[in-house]
Design brief:
Rossmann fold; globular
Amino acid sequence: MNKAKAVVLLSGGIDSSTTLALAARDGYETHALSIDYGQRHRIELESARRVAHSLHATEHIVVKLDLRPIGGSALTSEIPVPKGCDPGRMPLEIPATYVPARNTIFLSIALAWCEVLGAQDIFIGANAVDFSGYPDCRPDYLRQFEQLANLATKASVAGPVRYRILAPLLRMTKAEIIRAGHEAGVDFSLTTSCYDPNPSGLACGSCDSCIFRRRGFQEAGLPDPTRYA
């Protein structure tokens, strides 16, 4: 029996890698999609490649879409990456690492690939618990994009296709995500989370993403394989 196809957005971090592993565990033929958007931490694209290979994705493509001319984020401009923030206040504020409309752009590309592949499911590692205040990780946003997806393509308007946006990590804490990824076979030493790694690729240890990652491994009771500067 042929497996159902799914497009999985894969950044190379903990959340997207766990999402890919869960999609594979659930029997999908996984097609991993990474976006080279001019991000400061482009090292994550190499992590995505390694993770896709280790989790036996059917294929992995990298779409180049430079968002640096638009800017507006510490990840796509010269705005400094925030360091040493209070984890308790992170979800209350939208940080400088928010990239304008990023998930809308990424999901749109994933939707286009779905239509070509004949897939109906898009997996995204969005999280509404440890999500650093990003508005495009909220459940309401994902529901609204799913509605849009089913109004926006030939396959859904002229045919029986119904697209779904699947976010299996949406209600998990970072520790729960790490445990789930560990059980599903993710090698976290292949992943990258840091927003501001040094030229050697070592994680800074003090950006929002590093703080969530370090705390997540501690709370999960698992060793953190990250190489910190």
